[in-house]
UniProtKB/TrEMBL annotation:
GO terms of biological process kind: L-proline catabolic process to L-glutamate
Metabolic or biological pathway, per its Swiss-Prot or TrEMBL entry: Amino-acid degradation; L-proline degradation into L-glutamate; L-glutamate from L-proline: step 2/2
PANTHER family according to UniProt: DELTA-1-PYRROLINE-5-CARBOXYLATE DEHYDROGENASE 1, ISOFORM A-RELATED (PTHR42862), DELTA-1-PYRROLINE-5-CARBOXYLATE DEHYDROGENASE 2, ISOFORM A-RELATED (PTHR42862:SF1)
Taxonomic placement: Eukaryota, Metazoa, Spiralia, Lophotrochozoa, Mollusca
GO cellular component terms, A-Z: mitochondrial matrix
EC number(s) reported in the record: 1.2.1.88
Key words, A-Z: NAD, Oxidoreductase, Proline metabolism
Keyword Oxidoreductase among UniProt keywords: yes
Coiled coil: none
Reaction it catalyzes: L-glutamate 5-semialdehyde + NAD(+) + H2O = L-glutamate + NADH + 2 H(+)
Active site: E182
Name of the protein: Multifunctional fusion protein
Protein backbone atom coordinates (compact mmCIF):
# COMPACT_ATOMS: atom_id res chain seq x y z
CA UNK A 1 0.00 0.00 0.00
CA UNK A 2 1.40 3.39 -0.94
CA UNK A 3 2.55 5.84 1.72
CA UNK A 4 -0.15 8.31 0.61
CA UNK A 5 -2.90 5.75 1.14
CA UNK A 6 -1.54 4.74 4.53
CA UNK A 7 -1.59 8.41 5.56
CA UNK A 8 -5.10 8.88 4.16
CA UNK A 9 -6.39 5.82 5.99
CA UNK A 10 -5.00 7.18 9.24
CA UNK A 11 -6.34 10.67 8.62
CA UNK A 12 -9.87 9.49 7.79
CA UNK A 13 -9.90 7.20 10.84
CA UNK A 14 -8.72 10.05 13.06
CA UNK A 15 -11.25 12.53 11.72
CA UNK A 16 -14.22 10.18 11.31
CA UNK A 17 -13.85 7.85 14.29
CA UNK A 18 -11.87 10.12 16.65
CA UNK A 19 -8.85 7.84 17.05
CA UNK A 20 -5.59 9.44 18.06
CA UNK A 21 -2.64 8.98 15.73
CA UNK A 22 -1.27 5.91 17.54
CA UNK A 23 -4.59 4.10 17.59
CA UNK A 24 -5.31 5.05 13.97
CA UNK A 25 -2.03 3.55 12.81
CA UNK A 26 -2.56 0.32 14.77
CA UNK A 27 -6.01 -0.06 13.25
CA UNK A 28 -6.33 1.43 9.80
CA UNK A 29 -2.86 0.59 8.56
CA UNK A 30 -1.24 -2.25 10.52
CA UNK A 31 -4.25 -4.41 11.33
CA UNK A 32 -5.82 -3.99 7.91
CA UNK A 33 -2.59 -5.03 6.17
CA UNK A 34 -2.20 -7.95 8.61
CA UNK A 35 -5.73 -9.14 7.78
CA UNK A 36 -5.04 -8.99 4.04
CA UNK A 37 -1.80 -10.96 4.40
CA UNK A 38 -3.22 -13.46 6.88
CA UNK A 39 -6.37 -14.20 4.88
CA UNK A 40 -4.48 -14.98 1.69
CA UNK A 41 -2.08 -17.30 3.51
CA UNK A 42 -4.96 -18.96 5.37
CA UNK A 43 -7.02 -19.43 2.19
CA UNK A 44 -4.03 -21.08 0.51
CA UNK A 45 -3.52 -23.38 3.49
CA UNK A 46 -7.18 -24.48 3.30
CA UNK A 47 -6.61 -25.62 -0.29
CA UNK A 48 -3.98 -28.05 0.92
CA UNK A 49 -6.47 -29.93 3.14
CA UNK A 50 -7.52 -32.80 0.90
CA UNK A 51 -9.39 -36.05 1.55
CA UNK A 52 -7.60 -39.39 1.68
CA UNK A 53 -6.97 -41.31 -1.51
CA UNK A 54 -6.10 -44.76 -0.08
CA UNK A 55 -5.73 -46.47 -3.44
CA UNK A 56 -4.27 -43.66 -5.46
CA UNK A 57 -3.66 -45.92 -8.49
CA UNK A 58 -7.41 -46.38 -8.91
CA UNK A 59 -9.06 -43.26 -7.44
CA UNK A 60 -7.93 -39.79 -6.65
CA UNK A 61 -10.29 -37.91 -4.31
CA UNK A 62 -10.25 -34.16 -4.17
CA UNK A 63 -12.13 -31.33 -2.57
CA UNK A 64 -12.50 -27.97 -4.28
CA UNK A 65 -13.25 -24.79 -2.43
CA UNK A 66 -15.69 -22.55 -4.25
CA UNK A 67 -17.75 -19.47 -3.50
CA UNK A 68 -21.33 -19.91 -2.37
CA UNK A 69 -24.38 -19.23 -4.49
CA UNK A 70 -25.89 -15.83 -3.69
CA UNK A 71 -24.24 -13.06 -1.68
CA UNK A 72 -22.74 -12.46 1.74
CA UNK A 73 -23.83 -9.43 3.77
CA UNK A 74 -20.85 -7.90 5.58
CA UNK A 75 -22.03 -5.63 8.41
CA UNK A 76 -19.30 -3.79 10.25
CA UNK A 77 -18.98 -1.75 13.48
CA UNK A 78 -17.64 1.77 13.81
CA UNK A 79 -14.66 1.12 16.02
CA UNK A 80 -12.12 -0.55 13.70
CA UNK A 81 -11.53 0.47 10.10
CA UNK A 82 -9.66 -2.83 9.74
CA UNK A 83 -12.70 -4.86 10.80
CA UNK A 84 -14.82 -3.32 8.02
CA UNK A 85 -12.04 -3.99 5.53
CA UNK A 86 -11.79 -7.57 6.77
CA UNK A 87 -15.47 -8.53 6.97
CA UNK A 88 -16.08 -7.64 3.34
CA UNK A 89 -12.89 -9.11 1.86
CA UNK A 90 -12.50 -12.43 3.68
CA UNK A 91 -15.59 -13.97 2.00
CA UNK A 92 -14.47 -12.42 -1.31
CA UNK A 93 -11.05 -14.09 -1.06
CA UNK A 94 -12.91 -17.40 -0.82
CA UNK A 95 -14.79 -16.66 -4.05
CA UNK A 96 -17.95 -15.03 -2.74
CA UNK A 97 -19.72 -11.80 -3.59
CA UNK A 98 -20.24 -9.45 -0.65
CA UNK A 99 -22.54 -6.53 0.00
CA UNK A 100 -20.77 -4.40 2.60
CA UNK A 101 -22.69 -2.09 4.87
CA UNK A 102 -20.28 0.09 6.83
CA UNK A 103 -21.25 1.67 10.13
CA UNK A 104 -23.01 5.05 9.79
CA UNK A 105 -20.21 6.49 11.94
CA UNK A 106 -17.22 5.07 10.06
CA UNK A 107 -18.21 5.86 6.49
CA UNK A 108 -15.26 8.00 5.44
CA UNK A 109 -12.43 5.58 6.26
CA UNK A 110 -14.44 2.58 5.11
CA UNK A 111 -15.14 4.15 1.73
CA UNK A 112 -11.43 4.78 1.31
CA UNK A 113 -10.72 1.09 2.05
CA UNK A 114 -13.21 0.16 -0.68
CA UNK A 115 -11.59 2.59 -3.14
CA UNK A 116 -8.14 1.14 -2.37
CA UNK A 117 -9.41 -2.40 -3.03
CA UNK A 118 -10.85 -1.30 -6.36
CA UNK A 119 -7.70 0.52 -7.35
CA UNK A 120 -5.66 -2.55 -6.41
CA UNK A 121 -7.57 -4.54 -9.04
CA UNK A 122 -10.70 -5.84 -7.33
CA UNK A 123 -13.24 -6.27 -10.17
CA UNK A 124 -16.53 -4.36 -9.93
CA UNK A 125 -19.39 -6.26 -8.31
CA UNK A 126 -17.30 -8.49 -6.04
CA UNK A 127 -17.36 -6.25 -2.97
CA UNK A 128 -20.30 -3.86 -3.14
CA UNK A 129 -20.09 -0.85 -0.83
CA UNK A 130 -23.63 0.01 0.31
CA UNK A 131 -23.90 2.68 3.02
CA UNK A 132 -27.41 2.35 4.42
CA UNK A 133 -29.54 2.69 7.49
CA UNK A 134 -28.96 -0.42 9.65
CA UNK A 135 -32.52 -1.75 9.95
CA UNK A 136 -33.32 -0.97 6.28
CA UNK A 137 -30.25 -2.92 5.21
CA UNK A 138 -30.93 -5.77 7.65
CA UNK A 139 -34.57 -6.08 6.56
CA UNK A 140 -33.58 -6.06 2.90
CA UNK A 141 -30.77 -8.64 2.98
CA UNK A 142 -32.55 -11.06 5.29
CA UNK A 143 -35.62 -10.93 3.01
CA UNK A 144 -33.59 -11.92 -0.07
CA UNK A 145 -33.69 -15.55 -1.11
CA UNK A 146 -30.09 -15.12 -2.32
CA UNK A 147 -28.63 -14.46 1.12
CA UNK A 148 -25.71 -16.88 1.51
CA UNK A 149 -24.36 -15.61 4.81
CA UNK A 150 -23.91 -12.73 7.22
CA UNK A 151 -20.46 -11.70 8.37
CA UNK A 152 -21.25 -9.44 11.31
CA UNK A 153 -19.31 -7.63 14.00
CA UNK A 154 -21.14 -5.32 16.40
CA UNK A 155 -23.42 -5.49 19.40
CA UNK A 156 -25.15 -8.59 20.75
CA UNK A 157 -28.51 -6.89 20.31
CA UNK A 158 -28.06 -6.30 16.57
CA UNK A 159 -26.69 -9.78 15.93
CA UNK A 160 -29.54 -11.48 17.79
CA UNK A 161 -32.02 -9.36 15.85
CA UNK A 162 -30.47 -10.45 12.53
CA UNK A 163 -30.44 -14.09 13.62
CA UNK A 164 -34.17 -13.89 14.44
CA UNK A 165 -34.88 -12.30 11.05
CA UNK A 166 -33.07 -15.12 9.28
CA UNK A 167 -34.97 -17.68 11.35
CA UNK A 168 -38.29 -16.02 10.46
CA UNK A 169 -37.42 -16.17 6.75
CA UNK A 170 -35.82 -19.61 6.76
CA UNK A 171 -38.26 -21.10 4.27
CA UNK A 172 -37.46 -18.44 1.65
CA UNK A 173 -33.76 -19.11 1.11
CA UNK A 174 -32.15 -21.10 -1.71
CA UNK A 175 -29.46 -22.22 0.70
CA UNK A 176 -29.12 -22.08 4.49
CA UNK A 177 -27.41 -18.76 5.29
CA UNK A 178 -24.24 -19.06 7.39
CA UNK A 179 -24.31 -16.65 10.32
CA UNK A 180 -21.09 -15.35 11.79
CA UNK A 181 -21.21 -12.83 14.62
CA UNK A 182 -18.57 -11.33 16.84
CA UNK A 183 -20.15 -9.15 19.48
CA UNK A 184 -19.69 -7.16 22.68
CA UNK A 185 -17.90 -7.84 25.93
CA UNK A 186 -17.56 -7.02 29.62
CA UNK A 187 -13.85 -7.62 29.81
CA UNK A 188 -12.08 -8.16 33.10
CA UNK A 189 -8.73 -7.89 34.84
CA UNK A 190 -8.53 -10.30 37.78
CA UNK A 191 -5.58 -9.60 40.06
CA UNK A 192 -4.17 -12.08 42.56
CA UNK A 193 -2.00 -10.85 45.44
CA UNK A 194 1.04 -12.41 43.69
CA UNK A 195 0.47 -10.19 40.63
CA UNK A 196 3.04 -7.64 39.48
CA UNK A 197 1.80 -4.22 40.56
CA UNK A 198 3.33 -2.15 37.76
CA UNK A 199 1.87 -4.46 35.10
CA UNK A 200 -1.55 -4.15 36.71
CA UNK A 201 -1.41 -0.34 36.83
CA UNK A 202 -0.13 0.28 33.30
CA UNK A 203 -2.03 -2.56 31.65
CA UNK A 204 -5.31 -1.48 33.20
CA UNK A 205 -4.95 2.19 32.32
CA UNK A 206 -4.16 1.30 28.72
CA UNK A 207 -6.85 -1.33 28.34
CA UNK A 208 -9.60 0.75 29.96
CA UNK A 209 -8.85 4.11 28.33
CA UNK A 210 -7.11 3.68 24.97
CA UNK A 211 -9.55 4.79 22.27
CA UNK A 212 -11.86 5.90 25.10
CA UNK A 213 -12.69 2.31 26.07
CA UNK A 214 -14.25 1.73 22.66
CA UNK A 215 -12.30 -1.39 21.78
CA UNK A 216 -14.48 -4.45 22.12
CA UNK A 217 -11.68 -5.88 24.28
CA UNK A 218 -11.37 -2.88 26.65
CA UNK A 219 -11.15 -3.67 30.36
CA UNK A 220 -14.21 -2.31 32.15
CA UNK A 221 -14.11 -4.24 35.44
CA UNK A 222 -11.21 -5.09 37.71
CA UNK A 223 -11.06 -7.35 40.77
CA UNK A 224 -8.10 -6.67 43.05
CA UNK A 225 -6.96 -7.78 46.53
CA UNK A 226 -7.67 -5.15 49.21
CA UNK A 227 -4.01 -5.20 50.31
CA UNK A 228 -2.83 -4.14 46.82
CA UNK A 229 -5.53 -1.64 46.04
CA UNK A 230 -4.22 1.45 47.95
CA UNK A 231 -0.92 1.45 46.05
CA UNK A 232 -2.46 0.53 42.70
CA UNK A 233 -5.12 3.20 43.22
CA UNK A 234 -2.56 5.86 44.03
CA UNK A 235 -0.52 5.05 40.92
CA UNK A 236 -3.56 4.87 38.67
CA UNK A 237 -4.89 8.18 39.94
CA UNK A 238 -1.49 9.77 39.32
CA UNK A 239 -1.49 8.58 35.70
CA UNK A 240 -5.13 9.55 35.34
CA UNK A 241 -4.21 13.19 36.08
CA UNK A 242 -1.79 13.14 33.12
CA UNK A 243 -4.25 11.73 30.58
CA UNK A 244 -4.92 14.31 27.88
CA UNK A 245 -8.51 14.50 26.69
CA UNK A 246 -9.16 16.44 23.49
CA UNK A 247 -9.17 16.47 19.72
CA UNK A 248 -7.81 13.33 18.03
CA UNK A 249 -5.84 15.64 15.76
CA UNK A 250 -3.64 16.84 18.64
CA UNK A 251 -0.66 14.57 19.00
CA UNK A 252 -0.69 14.54 22.83
CA UNK A 253 -4.37 13.50 23.06
CA UNK A 254 -4.84 10.12 24.69
CA UNK A 255 -8.65 10.04 24.97
CA UNK A 256 -11.03 11.80 22.59
CA UNK A 257 -14.82 12.02 22.29
CA UNK A 258 -17.01 8.92 22.19
CA UNK A 259 -18.49 8.10 18.82
CA UNK A 260 -21.97 9.66 18.87
CA UNK A 261 -24.93 10.97 20.86
CA UNK A 262 -26.27 7.47 21.59
CA UNK A 263 -22.96 6.39 23.04
CA UNK A 264 -22.74 9.63 25.04
CA UNK A 265 -26.21 9.02 26.51
CA UNK A 266 -25.32 5.43 27.43
CA UNK A 267 -22.09 6.50 29.14
CA UNK A 268 -23.87 9.33 30.95
CA UNK A 269 -26.53 6.96 32.28
CA UNK A 270 -23.82 4.82 33.93
CA UNK A 271 -22.16 7.92 35.40
CA UNK A 272 -25.54 9.01 36.77
CA UNK A 273 -26.03 5.53 38.20
CA UNK A 274 -22.59 5.71 39.86
CA UNK A 275 -23.43 9.09 41.37
CA UNK A 276 -26.71 7.87 42.85
CA UNK A 277 -25.74 4.38 43.99
CA UNK A 278 -24.50 3.92 47.60
CA UNK A 279 -22.34 0.97 46.42
CA UNK A 280 -20.32 3.04 43.98
CA UNK A 281 -17.75 5.79 44.54
CA UNK A 282 -16.29 7.81 41.70
CA UNK A 283 -12.55 8.16 42.36
CA UNK A 284 -11.58 10.08 39.22
CA UNK A 285 -13.41 11.61 36.26
CA UNK A 286 -17.17 11.22 36.32
CA UNK A 287 -18.10 14.26 34.23
CA UNK A 288 -19.26 14.43 30.64
CA UNK A 289 -20.00 17.26 28.23
CA UNK A 290 -21.66 17.22 24.82
CA UNK A 291 -21.56 20.97 24.14
CA UNK A 292 -18.81 20.47 21.52
CA UNK A 293 -18.16 16.80 20.75
CA UNK A 294 -19.36 13.91 22.91
CA UNK A 295 -16.76 13.99 25.68
CA UNK A 296 -16.82 11.58 28.61
CA UNK A 297 -14.03 11.89 31.17
CA UNK A 298 -11.95 8.76 31.73
CA UNK A 299 -13.55 7.52 34.93
CA UNK A 300 -12.44 5.18 37.72
CA UNK A 301 -15.16 3.91 40.05
CA UNK A 302 -14.83 1.75 43.15
CA UNK A 303 -17.62 -0.66 44.04
CA UNK A 304 -18.50 -2.60 47.17
CA UNK A 305 -20.89 -4.79 45.18
CA UNK A 306 -19.28 -7.10 42.60
CA UNK A 307 -22.72 -7.80 41.14
CA UNK A 308 -23.81 -4.21 40.53
CA UNK A 309 -25.09 -3.74 36.96
CA UNK A 310 -21.99 -1.68 36.20
CA UNK A 311 -19.98 -4.94 36.57
CA UNK A 312 -22.28 -6.82 34.17
CA UNK A 313 -23.30 -4.63 31.26
CA UNK A 314 -21.26 -3.39 28.33
CA UNK A 315 -20.86 0.42 28.44
CA UNK A 316 -18.39 0.92 25.57
CA UNK A 317 -16.73 4.03 26.91
CA UNK A 318 -13.92 5.17 29.23
CA UNK A 319 -15.46 3.89 32.47
CA UNK A 320 -13.62 1.38 34.68
CA UNK A 321 -15.10 -0.12 37.85
CA UNK A 322 -12.89 -1.75 40.47
CA UNK A 323 -13.92 -4.25 43.13
CA UNK A 324 -11.34 -4.57 45.93
CA UNK A 325 -11.82 -7.99 47.59
CA UNK A 326 -10.47 -9.54 50.81
CA UNK A 327 -7.13 -11.13 49.86
CA UNK A 328 -8.00 -14.62 51.10
CA UNK A 329 -11.30 -14.74 49.17
CA UNK A 330 -9.98 -14.90 45.62
CA UNK A 331 -11.64 -18.27 44.97
CA UNK A 332 -15.07 -16.97 45.99
CA UNK A 333 -14.59 -13.78 43.97
CA UNK A 334 -13.46 -15.80 40.95
CA UNK A 335 -16.74 -17.75 41.27
CA UNK A 336 -18.68 -14.48 41.28
CA UNK A 337 -16.81 -13.18 38.23
CA UNK A 338 -17.50 -16.42 36.37
CA UNK A 339 -21.25 -15.93 36.81
CA UNK A 340 -21.60 -12.14 36.73
CA UNK A 341 -21.86 -11.29 33.05
CA UNK A 342 -23.32 -13.05 30.00
CA UNK A 343 -20.37 -11.85 27.90
CA UNK A 344 -17.08 -13.71 27.45
CA UNK A 345 -14.90 -11.75 25.06
CA UNK A 346 -11.54 -10.99 26.70
CA UNK A 347 -10.11 -11.31 30.19
CA UNK A 348 -6.77 -11.15 31.94
CA UNK A 349 -5.28 -12.51 35.12
CA UNK A 350 -2.32 -11.04 36.93
CA UNK A 351 -0.64 -13.70 39.08
CA UNK A 352 2.94 -14.89 39.49
CA UNK A 353 2.14 -17.79 41.79
CA UNK A 354 2.24 -20.76 39.38
CA UNK A 355 -0.35 -22.83 41.24
CA UNK A 356 -2.82 -19.96 41.44
CA UNK A 357 -2.21 -19.15 37.79
CA UNK A 358 -3.11 -22.70 36.74
CA UNK A 359 -6.15 -22.66 39.00
CA UNK A 360 -7.43 -19.38 37.51
CA UNK A 361 -6.74 -20.46 33.94
CA UNK A 362 -8.92 -23.47 34.59
CA UNK A 363 -11.57 -21.46 36.44
CA UNK A 364 -11.94 -18.86 33.68
CA UNK A 365 -11.68 -21.20 30.70
CA UNK A 366 -15.15 -20.30 29.38
CA UNK A 367 -15.18 -16.65 30.53
CA UNK A 368 -13.14 -15.28 27.65
CA UNK A 369 -12.48 -16.10 24.02
CA UNK A 370 -9.14 -14.31 24.37
CA UNK A 371 -7.37 -14.79 27.66
CA UNK A 372 -4.24 -12.95 28.77
CA UNK A 373 -1.81 -13.87 31.51
CA UNK A 374 0.05 -10.99 33.12
CA UNK A 375 -0.89 -8.66 30.29
CA UNK A 376 -3.78 -6.33 29.47
CA UNK A 377 -7.00 -7.57 27.86
CA UNK A 378 -6.58 -5.57 24.64
CA UNK A 379 -4.14 -5.46 21.76
CA UNK A 380 -4.46 -8.79 19.97
CA UNK A 381 -2.44 -9.01 16.78
CA UNK A 382 -3.79 -10.79 13.70
CA UNK A 383 -2.19 -14.21 13.32
CA UNK A 384 -0.62 -14.04 16.80
CA UNK A 385 -3.59 -13.88 19.16
CA UNK A 386 -6.50 -15.24 17.07
CA UNK A 387 -9.50 -13.17 18.11
CA UNK A 388 -13.08 -14.15 18.90
CA UNK A 389 -15.48 -14.26 21.84
CA UNK A 390 -17.27 -17.00 23.73
CA UNK A 391 -20.80 -17.15 25.21
CA UNK A 392 -22.86 -14.14 23.99
CA UNK A 393 -19.72 -12.36 22.81
CA UNK A 394 -19.35 -14.46 19.71
CA UNK A 395 -18.96 -17.82 18.11
CA UNK A 396 -15.32 -18.36 19.03
CA UNK A 397 -14.58 -18.86 15.36
CA UNK A 398 -10.86 -18.33 15.13
CA UNK A 399 -8.19 -19.88 13.07
CA UNK A 400 -7.01 -21.54 16.26
CA UNK A 401 -9.33 -22.96 18.90
CA UNK A 402 -6.86 -22.65 21.74
CA UNK A 403 -8.64 -20.80 24.59
CA UNK A 404 -5.35 -19.50 25.96
CA UNK A 405 -3.99 -17.58 23.06
CA UNK A 406 -1.35 -15.52 24.80
CA UNK A 407 0.99 -16.15 27.69
CA UNK A 408 2.91 -12.90 27.86
CA UNK A 409 5.95 -12.27 30.00
CA UNK A 410 5.19 -10.43 33.20
CA UNK A 411 6.60 -7.16 31.92
CA UNK A 412 4.68 -7.48 28.64
CA UNK A 413 2.04 -4.96 29.60
CA UNK A 414 4.36 -2.09 30.50
CA UNK A 415 3.70 1.32 29.12
CA UNK A 416 4.97 4.79 29.80
CA UNK A 417 3.15 8.00 29.11
N1 LIG B 1 -16.07 -9.14 19.12
C1 LIG B 1 -15.45 -8.32 18.27
O1 LIG B 1 -14.52 -8.72 17.57
C2 LIG B 1 -15.90 -6.89 18.17
C3 LIG B 1 -15.11 -5.97 17.47
C4 LIG B 1 -15.54 -4.66 17.37
C5 LIG B 1 -16.73 -4.25 17.96
N2 LIG B 1 -17.47 -5.16 18.65
C6 LIG B 1 -18.71 -4.75 19.31
O2 LIG B 1 -19.44 -3.86 18.47
C7 LIG B 1 -20.21 -2.95 19.27
C8 LIG B 1 -19.89 -1.52 18.86
O3 LIG B 1 -20.13 -1.33 17.50
P1 LIG B 1 -21.45 -0.65 16.95
O4 LIG B 1 -21.91 0.39 17.92
O5 LIG B 1 -21.15 -0.22 15.55
O6 LIG B 1 -22.46 -1.89 16.97
P2 LIG B 1 -23.96 -1.95 16.39
O7 LIG B 1 -24.50 -3.31 16.69
O8 LIG B 1 -24.75 -0.77 16.82
O9 LIG B 1 -23.76 -1.80 14.81
C9 LIG B 1 -23.00 -2.70 14.06
C10 LIG B 1 -23.44 -2.60 12.62
O10 LIG B 1 -24.76 -3.12 12.52
C11 LIG B 1 -25.57 -2.16 11.81
N3 LIG B 1 -26.96 -2.34 12.22
C12 LIG B 1 -27.61 -1.75 13.24
N4 LIG B 1 -28.89 -2.21 13.28
C13 LIG B 1 -29.02 -3.09 12.26
C14 LIG B 1 -30.08 -3.91 11.77
N5 LIG B 1 -31.29 -3.91 12.34
N6 LIG B 1 -29.83 -4.70 10.70
C15 LIG B 1 -28.64 -4.70 10.10
N7 LIG B 1 -27.59 -3.96 10.51
C16 LIG B 1 -27.78 -3.17 11.58
C17 LIG B 1 -24.93 -0.83 12.17
O11 LIG B 1 -25.34 0.19 11.28
C18 LIG B 1 -23.47 -1.18 12.07
O12 LIG B 1 -23.04 -1.17 10.74
C19 LIG B 1 -19.81 -3.22 20.70
O13 LIG B 1 -20.77 -4.06 21.29
C20 LIG B 1 -18.47 -3.94 20.55
O14 LIG B 1 -18.11 -4.72 21.66
C21 LIG B 1 -17.09 -6.47 18.75
N1 LIG C 1 -7.80 -6.39 17.98
C1 LIG C 1 -8.47 -5.67 19.00
C2 LIG C 1 -9.92 -6.11 19.17
C3 LIG C 1 -10.86 -5.50 18.22
C4 LIG C 1 -12.18 -5.12 18.85
O1 LIG C 1 -12.66 -4.00 18.83
C5 LIG C 1 -7.81 -5.77 20.35
O2 LIG C 1 -7.55 -6.85 20.85
O3 LIG C 1 -7.56 -4.73 20.93
Amino acid sequence: MSKEYRMDLMATTMMGQAKNIVQAEIDAVCELIDFLRFNVQYALSLQTQQPLSPSAFETINSQNLRGMEGFWAAISPFNFTAIGGNLCQSPAIMGNVTVWKPSDTAMLSNYLVYKIYREAGLPPGVINFVPADGPVFGNTVTASKHLAGINFTGSVRTFQHLWKQVANNIEKYRTYPRLIGECGGKNFHFVHKSGDLESVVNGTIRSAFEYGGQKCSACSRMYIPQSMWPEVKEKMLKIHKEIQVGSPLEVETFVSAVIDDKSFARNKSYLDHAKSSPNLTILAGGKCDDSKGYFVEPTIIETTDPEDKIMKEEIFGPILTVYPYPDDQYKEVADILEETSPFALTGAIFALDEEVKEELIDKFRDCAGNFYINDKSTGSVVGQQPFGGNRLSGMNLKECCCPLSYDAPVKGGHYSF
